[in-house]
């Protein structure tokens, strides 16, 4: 029953994870591509497992055409690991704006991304939010929140998953489950384990039954 309710959610609402994956990729790709590169040597050295560079109290801002603000990435510290070619960011906060200026945010105690930012993991107090906004028809799409201790996003497969409890809020509706698997290709959201859901019926306008 919960699965069916989730599938029939507003189609626009279902695209929140993809927007978040895009904004994460936008900021972390800049960090990886603009990071210091190790100087090549003739003699091959053993691959190091410790970080090869650090950043502290940094922020990265990207702009689109015409100087339009696209995203802002903030972090207390960041480390690049050459062995896995990944970037780890502490106390990450990301703000992203689409072409209509609509805001999506992501925060977590820690984030880990691969070199091309196709895989992003959020650890500890992970939160993804898309503010309430109007769709193309002018209808109001409620604020949506994804909360959990762990969220895993893969832009290649267009999936957002978690093996830990997740809470979803869409307006006043609330769903919780022990695991989550969102598949953008099939446009489905599956929650398993101790799944609970509360759907709050909108109040009719005054004067109507």
Element layout with pairings:
Blueprint lengths: L1 H6 L8 H18 L19 E11 L5 E13 L4 E12 L5 E11 L5 E12 L2 E2 L5 E2 L2 E11 L4 E4 L3 E5 L2 E5 L1 E5 L4 E5 L3 E3 L11
Antiparallel strand pairs: 1-2, 2-3, 3-4, 4-5, 5-8, 6-7, 8-9, 8-10, 9-12, 10-11, 11-14, 12-13
Walk me through what this model shows:
Helix content is 11%, strand content 48%. It has 209 residues and is mainly beta. The chain has one domain (2-35, 49-198): Lipopolysaccharide (LPS) transport protein A like domain (lipopolysaccharide transport protein A fold), CATH 2.60.450.10. Strands 1, 2, 3, 4, 5, 8, 9, 10, 11, 12, 13 and 14 form a twelve-stranded antiparallel beta sheet that branches. A two-stranded antiparallel ribbon has the order 6-7. A hairpin with a 4-residue loop joins strand 8 (144-154) and strand 9. It is globular. 24% of the residues are buried.
**How can the largest sheet be summarized?**
12 strands, antiparallel
Average pLDDT figure: 77
CATH architecture, by name, is: Sandwich
Shape: globular
Q: Which fold name corresponds to the CATH topology?
A: lipopolysaccharide transport protein A fold
List low-confidence stretches: 1-9
Supply database-style keywords.
single chain; two-stranded antiparallel ribbon; 209 residues; mainly beta; 11% helix; disordered N terminus; lipopolysaccharide transport protein A fold
Q: In brief, what are we looking at here?
A:
By secondary structure, this protein is mainly β. The chain has two helices and 14 strands, in the order ααββββββββββββββ.
């Amino acid at each position: 029953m919960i699965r069916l309710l989730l599938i029939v959610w507003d189609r626009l609402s279902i695209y929140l994870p993809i927007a978040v994956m895009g904004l994460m990729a936008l900021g972390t790709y800049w960090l990886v591509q603009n990071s210091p590169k190790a100087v090549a040597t003739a003699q091959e050295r053993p691959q190091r497992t410790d970080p090869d560079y650090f950043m502290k109290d940094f922020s990265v801002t990207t702009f689109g055409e015409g100087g339009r603000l696209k995203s802002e990435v903030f972090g207390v510290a960041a480390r690049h690991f050459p062995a896995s070619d990944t970037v780890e960011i502490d106390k990450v906060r990301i703000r992203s704006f689409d072409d209509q200026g609509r805001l999506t945010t992501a925060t977590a105690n820690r984030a880990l991304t691969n070199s091309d930012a196709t895989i992003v993991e959020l650890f500890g107090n992970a939160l993804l939010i898309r503010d309430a906004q109007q769709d193309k028809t002018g209808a109001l799409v409620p604020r949506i929140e994804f909360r959990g201790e762990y969220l895993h996003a893969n832009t290649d497969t267009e999936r957002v998953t978690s093996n830990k409890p997740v809470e979803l809020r869409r307006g006043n509706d609330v769903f919780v489950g022990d695991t989550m698997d969102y598949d953008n290709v099939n446009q489905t959201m599956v929650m398993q384990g101790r799944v609970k859901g509360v759907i709050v019926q909108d109040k009719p306008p005054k004067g109507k039954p």
